[in-house]
Design a protein that fits this description.
A three-stranded antiparallel beta sheet has the order 1-2-3, with helices on one face. Strands 5-4-6 form a three-stranded antiparallel beta sheet. About 9% of the residues have low confidence. By secondary structure, the chain is mostly helical. Helix 5 runs parallel beside helix 10, helix 8 runs antiparallel to helix 9 and helix 10 packs across helix 13. It has 14 helices and six strands. A hairpin with a 5-residue loop joins strand 2 and strand 3.
Length: 340
């Protein structure tokens, strides 16, 4: 089955369950077919000669390049990433919620979402949604470059990555990966795996998802499909150690919370929300990335489980540092209040 038909069938089934956005793959292909007919006309040879002088641009007079294709795809990508982030956040917040909150959810008629298998299925649906849309975007951009004999598609992909609307760069995908491993480890620890019968189905969000140390470097990796693999380096580029109490800035880079506070020139009492918009990410040097930072709670649980000795040592060190910062902060507040 061709991918276009597979994608349309998938989206049709999903839209029957819930109203969710997607990439207009079929519509964009039709636009490219129309563009191809224009390129195959009498002026195509002249256009090709013009293009040889500038490999980065499409042939002159291309109506697709003039604003029909990329703005539409950009809008669809923003909708897809926004829906994915919002629903992944809701799912993970429910997983870490108190028993009272889960009870309220159950009374509202969402008992499926509060069960172990229900959470796994919701997570799997989100992962499949992210994967098939990532592949759809990759394929349509590749087709664009093939028809235009250009690299505009690749340049567009690079641009949207900088704009933080690439679904595979979402911090919530990282959280879902950690969520999957945590559920699997929880099942092992509770002994459910040992008492399960051989016929019991094994439920998982990802195939081949793992947290490992590669030459001492912590790595969260996952093969979403044969063509899509996600590798996330969990080394904080500020302290050069495994991230502790991890936080993802809006540019996508992950740091220890206290390291991020230090880089943003704020203390842990005020937090990253008080960071100035001029403060930049230490890696990519992009500004305004601190206020929308995401606390990676599932990843923190995974690191606590996987690196017990290191995590406990860092906890003691950071606790002492936080107490010191808190003392200095309140001393300063008291002096400001009393005028001393």
């Amino acid at each position: 089955m061709k991918f276009c038909k597979k994608y349309e069938e998938y989206m049709q089934v999903q839209k029957q369950k819930k109203n969710l956005p997607g990439v207009g793959f079929k519509k964009l292909k039709k636009v490219l077919k129309k563009c191809r007919r224009n390129h195959d006309g009498p002026s195509s040879k002249i256009a090709f000669i013009d293009q040889q002088h500038d490999d980065h641009n499409c042939p002159r007079g291309c109506t697709v390049c003039d604003g029909n294709f990329f703005p539409e795809l950009l809008k669809e990508m923003e909708d897809v990433v926004g829906w994915f982030n919002e629903n992944a956040q809701k799912l993970l917040e429910l997983h870490l919620a108190s028993a009272f909150t889960k009870c309220l959810t159950w009374f509202k008629g969402n008992s499926r979402k509060t069960s172990h298998l229900g959470l796994i299925q919701e997570g799997k649906d989100l992962v499949n949604y992210a994967l098939i849309n990532a592949v759809a975007i990759r394929k349509i951009l590749k087709k664009y470059d093939k028809i235009h004999e250009s690299r505009q598609g690749q340049l567009f992909k690079t641009q949207v990555q900088k704009m933080r609307i690439e679904i595979l760069q979402s911090p919530w995908l990282c959280e879902l990966m950690a969520f999957h491993i945590n559920l699997k480890e929880s099942k092992k620890e509770s002994g459910a795996a040992s008492v399960a019968s051989p016929s019991t189905p094994v439920h998982a969000l990802f195939d081949g998802c793992s947290f490992t140390f590669d030459d001492g470097k912590p790595l969260l990796s996952c093969e979403l499909s044969d063509s899509v693999k996600v590798d996330i380096d969990l080394t904080c580029s500020i302290c050069l150690d495994t991230v502790f109490d991890p936080i993802a800035l809006t540019c996508g880079h992950i740091y220890c919370y206290m390291c991020a506070c230090s880089a943003a020139s704020v203390n842990v009492i005020d937090g990253l929300k008080t960071a100035e918009l001029t403060e930049k990410c230490p890696l990519c040097r992009e500004d305004g990335v601190y206020k929308g930072a995401v606390h990676l709670d599932e990843l923190n649980i995974l690191l606590k489980r996987s690196c017990r000795e290191y995590w406990e040592e860092r906890r003691k060190t950071e606790r002492a540092e936080r107490l010191q910062q808190a003392k200095e902060y309140w001393d300063y507040q008291c002096r400001s209040f009393t005028g001393i």
